[in-house]
């Protein structure tokens, strides 16, 4: 883009061109607002690119009873699903303390209730969004299977099934033979599993590119390779943002910067305790006999997704700040897990090794709402492990907030004000 001379103004300026920024932009355009999206890289270059693309209302909050003990055990194993980099980082220590404060039965159940409600609402909206905008993103509604190899763990986790039923998430309990009958790609070591027949998946990089196409088709402007470097606040009003190509102003701004949100938030005096939860994936060309359903390989916390165009292994959670290295050990753990559970674990050709930073909050709930003390700023971030799943409802809620409508879901649990 050429250097701007005059200040550019739109009704709404969306900061961040990930799945959350683009979903918000699309719904705002449909509500009749003029919208510009500013993205420092290309759309979908952040966490929204190489993730597993599962649409999973069953995913309960990470902050749960037992998570801290499990995390401490995992810290001793360098290839475990969780890693915390051993370096002094005050913000991370504070975040971990706040996270452990949520790992009790009462907080977990409260968060599970509100998170599941949001996930189910988003799941219901997604097919309509994809059909209406003709998003070509390999969307398939054929369910999801969590596979176990350890019978003791399967028995121990039984209360989760009861909780899902209580929350309205459809689940069927299967023995090993039934898992293999449903998903013949699983090998004989599988002892049982949980089938979520109502879940779905899509190819996330395509979904994001298609959302961008829809935003442009509705008259939105997406300005790529433009980084927001500063925000100018005048009293309770956010007056403009500064970039390398000039200043932009808007009646309302939507901050959808994923894991990067706290940096600009701090400039505005906002306390947004979000840590980058680094995850990895390896994408292959499609195996001859791939799994038909998206899978969770439970003991290894690895996700497997198959599309017509490819095959992906993904997972792991690493708290190491914005570390840009591809940790070989963690990528190898994905391959090892696939070999333990699947008859044909890898695709014939490796296409991409990737990492992305999930925006993680200490209560594992997203942040959706008006920023405290700033009358024209809306925050939409902190979607953690379910940003693709929550994209449709987040776009709708952001549009409702900006347009002054009563939000279709109670936003109190997701308020940016909850961090004090
Ligand atoms: C391995 C892995 C697997 C996952 N699997 C799933 C899954 O199966 N299902 C699911 O629902 N979710 C999944 N997720 C989570 C999902 O990827 C995230 O929740 C989601 O992508 C977050 O979207 P976002 O738009 O908030 O952030 P991002 O996609 O990171 O977007 C933020 C954007 O802001 C831009 N930006 C940052 N700073 C600036 C600036 N100063 N100026 C301008 N632009 C800026 C960035 O370049 C980026 O494009 C997974 C994540 C990982 C890592």
CATH top level class name of the domain at 68-103 and 140-199 and 275-360: Alpha Beta
* CATH A-level architecture of the domain at 68-103 and 140-199 and 275-360: 2-Layer Sandwich
Helix tally equals 11
Measured distance between first and last alpha carbons: 39 Å
CATH superfamily of the domain at 68-103 and 140-199 and 275-360: D-Amino Acid Oxidase, subunit A, domain 2
Residue runs with pLDDT of under 50 for 5 or more positions: none
Helix content: 25-40%
Tell how many strands the DSSP assignment holds.
Answer: 19
**What series of H and E elements makes up the topology?**
EHEEHEHHEHHEHEEHEEEEHEEEEHEEEH
Indicate the structural class. Answer: alpha/beta
CATH-defined fold name of the domain at 68-103 and 140-199 and 275-360: D-Amino Acid Oxidase, Chain A, domain 2
| Largest beta-sheet characterization | 9 strands, mixed
Q: Name every ligand kind in the structure.
A: flavin-adenine dinucleotide
- Proportion of β residues? 25-35%
- Overall spatial form: globular
Q: Give the C-alpha Rg.
A: 21 Å
Mean pLDDT: 95
């Amino acid at each position: 883009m050429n250097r701007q001379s005059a200040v550019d103004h739109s009704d709404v300026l969306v900061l961040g061109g990930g799945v959350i920024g683009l979903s918000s932009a699309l719904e705002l355009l449909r509500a009749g607002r003029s919208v510009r999206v500013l993205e420092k890289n290309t759309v979908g270059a952040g966490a929204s690119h190489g993730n597993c693309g599962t649409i999973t209302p069953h995913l309960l909050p990470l902050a749960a009873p037992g998570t801290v003990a499990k995390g401490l055990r995992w810290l001793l194993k360098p290839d475990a699903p969780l890693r915390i980099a051993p370096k002094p980082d005050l913000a991370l220590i504070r975040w971990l303390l706040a996270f452990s404060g949520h790992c009790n039965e009462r907080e977990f159940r409260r968060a599970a209730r509100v998170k599941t409600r949001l996930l189910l609402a988003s799941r219901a909206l997604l097919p309509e969004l994809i059909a209406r905008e003709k998003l070509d993103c390999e969307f398939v509604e054929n369910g999801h299977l969590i596979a176990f190899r350890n019978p003791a763990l399967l028995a121990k986790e039984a209360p989760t099934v009861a909780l899902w039923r209580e929350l309205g998430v459809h689940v069927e309990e299967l023995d090993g033979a039934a898992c293999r009958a449903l998903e013949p790609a699983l090998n004989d070591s599988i002892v049982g599993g949980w089938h979520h027949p109502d879940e779905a998946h899509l190819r996330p990089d395509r979904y994001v590119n298609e959302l961008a196409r829809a935003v442009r088709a509705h008259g939105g402007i997406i300005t790529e390779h433009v980084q927001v470097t500063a925000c100018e606040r005048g009293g309770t009003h956010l007056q403009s943002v500064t970039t390398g190509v000039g200043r932009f102003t808007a009646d309302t701004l939507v901050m959808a910067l994923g894991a990067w949100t706290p940096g600009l938030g701090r400039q505005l005096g906002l306390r947004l305790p979000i840590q980058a939860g680094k995850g990895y994936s390896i994408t292959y060309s499609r195996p001859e006999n791939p799994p038909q359903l998206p899978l969770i390989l439970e003991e290894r916390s690895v996700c497997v997704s198959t599309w017509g165009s490819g095959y992906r292994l993904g997972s792991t959670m690493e708290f190491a700040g914005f570390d840009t290295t591809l940790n070989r050990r963690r990528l190898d753990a994905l391959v090892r897990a696939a070999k333990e559970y699947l008859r044909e674990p890898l695709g014939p050709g490796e296409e991409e090794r990737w990492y992305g930073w999930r925006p993680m909050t200490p209560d594992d709930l997203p942040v959706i709402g008006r920023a405290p003390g700033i009358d024209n700023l809306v925050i939409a971030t902190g979607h953690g492990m379910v940003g693709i799943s929550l994209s449709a409802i987040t776009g709708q809620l952001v549009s409702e907030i900006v347009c002054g409508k009563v939000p279709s879901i109670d936003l109190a649990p997701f308020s940016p004000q909850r961090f004090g």
